[in-house]
Amino acid sequence: MTGSPDIPAAVRHRLVSQDRAAAAWLDGLPSRIGAVLERWDLRVAGPPSFGGTSVVLPVRSGGTGSAALKLVSPLGDAVQEARALEVLAGHGTVRRERHSPEDQALLLELLPGPTLADLADEREAVAAAGAVAARIAAVPAPPDAPQLAASAPAWREAFARQHRRAIREGRALPADVVQAADATIGDLAGAAAPGMTHGDLSFANVLRRDDGAWVAIDPLYRSGPAEHEAHTVLRSVTRPPLSEGLSRARGMRRMRELLGIFCEAASLDPQRAWRISQARFAASAFWEAEHGGDAADIAWLREMAAEIEL
User: Fold this and answer.
1) 205 vs 137: CA distance, rounded Å
2) Considering only Cβ atoms within 10 Å of each terminal Cβ, which end of the chain, N or C, has fewer?
3) Can you list the positions of beta strands (E) in the chain?
């Protein structure tokens, strides 16, 4: 059985719109999957799922039992993901079983779920995300792991370009919001961290193992302060209204409460987590506006960025 998945039109459009090279990758996917299945003695055990940059198939084999076969598109980097998973070795993340660099393929432990996005109690979800962030941060980063601090100057330059474009297009953020974000990004340049960090700790990227433990998928190979993850966690929660009066005050109070829960679970500095989040909210508002993002989402990001102080 080849197990070649039918690619939904929406998935194809999303991948190709981001990188035209994805079209050739999608066309060659059936043969690539067939080759990996044969080489690793696997058979498909269920329908595929589609991530932001990949296709994942549940598989079985005599040697590994149940597992997940992940094929990474040109939008992702299976080599860097494999390296991250090797270093983290299951500490807060899914376990890696095999890797084929030439096929951009990974064989991973199968996680039955649910994800943190499926939990009814967002406080529980945020606390679980914090615990995962702490486990990842406890793993010492190898010398070759890219430091978030090293990318801060490039981020600062990109943010300045975004701001100039926003001014030209009449959607600039207030000056104090931009200045606060710029200062935080500049400070990150001197914030080398000894441990690993995930890089995209959304609720959808944290799943439950059979033993009940929560672990993350799709880690980046990166070292940096775990406070950097707070922005992604906050973007995962149900968004309270921030537009007016009392509802806005209540909404911000709730976001601060959730940030506190995350930081307590991960043993992080809430002030630092908020400063980095504020900068990332501002940058995200610019990025979404430049790429045709949802108007309500952009408005929410701008409101969050406007909260300079915790």
Assistant:
1) 16
2) N
3) 43-44, 49-50, 54-61, 65-72, 96-100, 105-109, 196-197, 206-208, 214-216, 222-223
**Model confidence pTM above 0.85:** yes
What DSSP state is assigned to residue 242?
-
Residue 234 tokens, joined: 């906050």
CATH superfamily of 116-306: Aminoglycoside phosphotransferase (APH), C-terminal lobe (3.90.1200.10)
Six-digit token string for 297? 């989402």
Using alpha carbons, list the distances in angstroms from residue 286 to 207, 282, 297. 30, 6, 11
Distance separating alpha carbons of residues 99 and 81, to the nearest angstrom: 10
Between CA 241 and CA 80 the distance in angstroms is: 38
pLDDT at 64: 62
Strands (E), 195-308: 196-197, 206-208, 214-216, 222-223
The two three-digit tokens of residue 27, written as one number:
């066309």
Q: Is the peptide bond before 8 cis (omega within 30 degrees of 0)?
A: no
Could you give the CA distance from residue 254 to residue 237 in angstroms, rounded to a whole number? 10
SS3 1: coil
Q: Tell me, what's the pLDDT at 1?
A: 44
